[in-house]
Amino acid sequence: MTAEVEASDAQADEIPPAPKGFLRRFVFSIDHKVIGRQFLFLGLGFLAIGGVMAMLIRWQLARPGAPVPLVGKLLFGPAGGVISPAAYTALFTMHGTIMIFFAVTPVLIGGFGNFLLPLMLGARDMAFPRLNMASFWTMFAATAVLTASFFVPLGPPEAGWTAYATLSTAIGAPGPGQTLWVVAIYLNGASSVMGAVNYITTVLRMRAPGMTYLRMPLTVWGFFLTSILNALFVPVLAAAMVLLFFDRVLGTQFFIAGTTPGAGGDPILYQHLFWLFGHPEVYILILPAWGIVGDLLAFFARKPVFGYRVTVGSLIGVVVLSTVVYGHHMFTTGMSPLLGESFMLLTMIISVPTSLLVLSWLGTLWRGAIRTATPMLFCLGMVFTFGVGGLTGLYLADITADMYLHDTYFVVGHFHLIMASALLMSLFAAVYFWFPKMFGRMMNEGLGKLHFWLTFVPLNLVFMGQLVIGYEGMQRRLYDPSVYDFLKPLLPLNRGISHAAYLLGAAQFIFVLNFFWSLAAGARAATNPWEVGTLEWTVASPPPHHNFDRIPIVVRGPHELSHPAARLLGRDWLGQAEVIEPAPAPSEPAGPAPAPGEPA
Amino acid sequence: MTTAPVPETRRREIDAQVGLVIFLGATAMLFAALLLAYAIVRSEAPRWPPAGAPPFPRGAAAANTLALVAASLALRRGWARAAFAFGAAFLAAQALLWRHLVSIHLGPAAGALGEVFFALSALHALHVLGGLFALALTGARRLRLLAIYWDFVLVVWVVVYVAVCLL
Questions:
Q1: Tell me, what's the ipTM?
Q2: Domain count for chain B
Q3: Which residues of A touch B33 (CB under 8 A)?
Q4: For the whole prediction, is pTM greater than 0.90?
């Protein structure tokens, strides 16, 4: 491998000058920290929009056909404040699209990935700072195109976030809204691939001396593996978008069956391409979350990660397996039973590495000196919701159960427990944890804890409630379930879920308040407020433009907590690049990494 | 393992090559997915080439390949301007080929063979266009990277040609 980048002295001497002028510093910046914050704000903005859409969806399910209070006249004026069937379809389409592609992706991967990778690896910036800037502005263009799709004749796209053909071809969606959706997703993918090229190169080439692969924080592993999946599978989504675009604009018939003699189009072809990307996509989103939670659990349990090497191996195992399981989204498309059973088996095998991950988290917590700060609460919440969400996945992986549960609210509950709950929990954990480093101020702990409890409890009520109504047989995407007699008894349950959802939505105002109040008037953050050893906590909060005055030389793993040698220093942690003066350890500077997985 | 410091410019160049190879891997997946779509369309068609489709003008498409080969060879010699001219000539020739295909009812809306060729060749042409932009912007400064990219574009075209026009 070309991993041994030895020349640190040459790097250490040339510190790039900080840019001057408002545009260069804050708008068209090539500084990974600024770009990370740009992604964070963009993503949080869309998280709010997607969240409001979720509230509107829940309103319709709780009180079908009743006018929306407060904002109804503004949003649905012509219909008298009532959500029409078309508007409802557009709402759940855009809710899914925005949350997956324009909220979680920019916040976690674009925001935290950008901010953290160079700082955690001991680098001055990403490998390609200009490409990084291009990645953000491509994402920005994608959001602009997506927003434009609301304001075109025939309205926004209504084909669901999966945009299945033929709902999404010119037959099902003649308006320009769907075409704009296709373009927005393509641009979004282009941004992701630019980011992936940058992240992978940065991890391969920009690690500080001594930062071996097995000394990288799990957060870095998460972003690294996510980027590999992004580079491989986002182009497959791009291919689907290209063909859909040609179908809509040039009159090709890739996804339209049998309309012209000799044309061999097939709507199922779209599903193959979409899920070939779509299943890796769920791991693209969850891998950074796994990495973040893995690190934070160790930091707040004051213990090394239990089985660091096994954890890394499990993450890699999931990445490999994630590429060969997509067929479980298509059990009901009439695929060959042999193929279906292969996909079922492979899907279930994924539970082996994920179980190892959960085992590592529980082992890390076991007999730890747990500090229940806000980020830790959100991490513990993530472990719980991920556990429940993961277990429900086993039902859906089983073909016979899936035949019944397919396209019901059980599926909605399952993927929201992972995609919404586990992801959102780790997203909030990351915000509370790295806010001091990003903005130089602490967030308020009391408000943070209140935010946690008012998020965690309703969140579980909402999505576990959805598991129940799905098991009772309620299909997803129904405008008004009460028109079916057998679903009428579910109305009170639906109403209860909606009330929990409103509480969940309202609780987010606490976060918004805390975020902006802390930004303006929070207590000044020290360099290392959480007392942990990874490299980003060795530089000022917020870090200077060039990150490190001298490129650090890493001597140990990321989770050296409760380390006996640290006791001499009067604390319980050691920095990754910290040189201990009396040198109690045997001197082996070029030796193998001191197995960070071992309990110290 | 060497301990001699690697010069900064050399290090940057390796960074750029690593990044380019990852990007080309992603691009290869894009074309692989399109070829997969082609394979599925073709396997589901009752017969191939589809009934009533005129024979594909293989000769004209093969002749266009020569322009791309010339561009790649020119870059190996360091002739950036000649490579640009050959690349532009390829695009012009492709445009003429598309016009011809539409006129003989092998256009994008005229059936499976036409749509497959149009989708693959249009996306390929976009990547050639990107290569022309890169040539015009960086010119002689990034010859080694550009040569890798243009070889890749040539290989993709040959694969598309063999898969769609010959097989």
A1: 0.94
A2: 1
A3: 235-236, 238-240, 273, 276
A4: yes
